[in-house]
User: What shape does this take?
Amino acid sequence: MAAATHTSAGACAAPGSAAVGYSRMTAVVTPLDPHPAFFHPHEGAHDRDLCHNVRPSAWRNPHPRGPYHLLVIGAGMAGLVAARAAAALGAKVALVERDLLGGNFLNYGCLPSKPLIRTSRVYAEMREAERYGAQRPDDIKVDFPMAMERMRRLRARLSRTESAASLSADGIDLFFGAARFVSGDAVDVDGVRLRFNRAMIATGSRSRLPTIPGLADAGYLTNETVFDLTEPPASLLVIGGGPIGCEMAQAFSRFGVRTTIVHAVPLFLPKEERDAAQMVSDSLARDGVGIHLNTQAVNVRVEAGKIYVDTISDGVTATLEVDRILTGIGRSPTVDGLNLEAAGVAYDREAGVRVDDFLRTTNRRIYAAGDVCLEHKFTNTAAASARIVVRNALLLGRKRFSALTIPWCTYTDPEIAHVGIYVRQARERGIPVKTFTVPMHTVDRAIVDGEEDGFAKIHVREGTGKILGATVVARHAGEMINGITLAMVAGVDLGAMARVIHAYPTQADAIKMAADAYARSRRSPFIGAVIRRWINR
Assistant: This one.
């Protein structure tokens, strides 16, 4: 195994701290603590800029000004949105973060993954250049360090808007340290007591690790450590076929890494529609990913510097030899260490903090938002839930989380985007549903772009144009789903969408084509006959 693949040092450590919580195990950093501090191992300018923004070494916590109108624990997306929204209203706000500002979405989640996905797509397109009328390069050399350097540069740039200095300029009292409830209206942050009128828990989530014998000894990567790689492994096993697992498996395979993915159930992305998930599976296979569905990893061992993973599928055992393992089986809410019992806040280690539809916990002073309490652990969901908390906690609002219409997207190639309910959910609720589907290979722009894989599928309540939900599978599905989401929120039915003039040609024409199909379905035979007689009179 390549010793240069991963290093560990305390570039983002707090003043006077050591890079604890990680151990070097066959050159792979393995978290020992369920909430490890995040340390960047690279001493380059980009990571220094990042650390200066999200955990400045010279930072000194302010003198408490409590009781605070709103005290926010956790400075990921939900915490940042809530703190800034409350401060903009004139509230006295405290924000507590024990690791890095920006949390998962900025440091090791959706933002750093997208530059790698984009670069990997460039290499995939270079290999298929002839499809696009260009000459294929004779020798395509993958420069993985360059891709990682670009990711770090962009991450550092994006961190400027979430920096400690910007939060302080917004009038927010920012405290770095571990918050622990000591009563129903106070927390302790490293020995300092902060009192509040209202509080919001936004501690996010962490990678869920599979319980496989030998995995900890062999070492593994998660989404919290994979972005510290400086060289690609020769081979990679991805455990888990959810969004993170599928995205990373495809990207690393396109970087030239011999990649295998094992998934315990018969289909990737089990929450998505079967035809959408199958398209992703086919795409991964075309990119050279070894796919083992309905397969479980049951044991890991290290022999002569190589990692061997024993798997079982339908009673048949097999052994895979790999250089690295990446776990991607999901996220677990971060609830440990908060002493929630002292505040009277009920929680579950699997489901997280218990909240009602107003995002209020069992303590009426305390709310929660984001991954720590919600089933759908998406950045946009965290932001939306934080805005609800600010309205309900500070403005006597009665905004319900269940009233939100929230889209999401898995950033494979093609992407899968969804909003609203699925057909199976409509049937379970006794809602009659009709679906209008447009394959992307019938859309002019998709054809000329050479991006024909996918479809746009829109579900309406039968007999009406009310949109219940939609799934889009396309190269730019995440962009396309937003128009449907807007229509659902604004109460615009599919018939009205048929009357919208779209720019031409665009891949979003698929949505217009589905709306046109709905409009045609509403024409009665009698009206059609009348029109034909009038024209031919």
Summary: The longest helix spans residues 110-127. The longest strand covers residues 192-201. The chain has 17 helices and 25 strands. The chain has a mean pLDDT of 91.
